[in-house]
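hi! just following up on the protien thing from before. the input was this:
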Amino acid sequence: MKRLFTVYDRYIFTQVLITTIVAILLFTIVWIAPEMLLSTIKKILSHQYTVKTGVLVLVYELPKILGKAFPVGLLLGSLFTFDKLSKDSELTIFRAVGMSFSRILRPLLVLSFIVTYLCFLTYDKWIPYTCQKLQEIKGGSSLTQYIYTKKDENNHPEQAVIVSRFFQGEMTNVIVLNFSKQVFDDLHGLNNILVAEIGHKGLDTKGKPSWILENVTSYNISEDGIFKQITKKDKEYILNGEDAEDAYTIMINSTKRDRDITNKDLKHYVDLLKKANLDEDYRLMCNKYLQRFFHPFVCVLLAILGCLLGFSKPREQRLIGFTIAIGCIFVYYITLPFFDLLAEKGVLPPLVTAAFPPFAFLCAIIAFYKSRDL
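and the predicted 3d structure came back as:
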């Protein structure tokens, strides 16, 4: 029975692994050195951080860099390894003994799938965890303004809640607009406005989840749009039950970047945005969620691309392959915000915007493979 992992496989696997690790380390050093390291050192010298805290900040920043470093490192690692094998005529020997391109590629694919899993794990677990730790060190996040609109079955607004500031579970300067049933030329009238100094999520008198507003001023409005009564209340309950839970979850997640959220929580957030008819936010976050699955797969594609670029003639300039590789990486990362925008504005469905960059890489690899006649 043939061995699944031969001496050749171990040799290629080891060589690509070593060069990939070196490339990842160099990428990380270049990324972290200019601004992040300098900023941390300044805060240590100004006694904002202790030395221990400064080191922890740098450690917690690493997963965000590694998420981008894994694909880049694998591309450069495979390119450098196979370019060296080409220049030393080792690939010529491998082909001469009957090895096909797919057989030569096998150990590289094994390594690329391992790196793909690490990349997926980084975005799903490590980055959200370290972002939470960084938030604890640097202080909680605050939101300048958050607006939640509750709509009826006909998609007409029933209630709009405006939170001027949200910080560590407490809301300040909350304004609630209660809409009337009447509609004038697509303009929804108001029958009541609540203005509260503070608010928080808790339980109402029946023990159900609710937003509790304190120090409330209530403005009742007539059908003619005139304030007919102004009253003061110590406490007011709004968004009871499931609406309270959904609105609070959306508000919490809206204070975070998508990378700060695990896959499970991001999927729940996307479902809530769709349920609340927040179309632009839904399309953007849906695109970000789908990218969590497509982006790690780019590691496999870049590994194959690096191998193809490494197949060069003995006298062919090494600079050409590295220039193409760097260009591909630059184009990939520079176009991601553009596809995010296309998804957010509804120009293309999120599935298309998330899948297009990897699909473009796949097409480029197929075309490049055919042009090399391997």
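The radius of gyration is 28 Å.
Residues 7-45 form the longest helix (39 residues).
cheers
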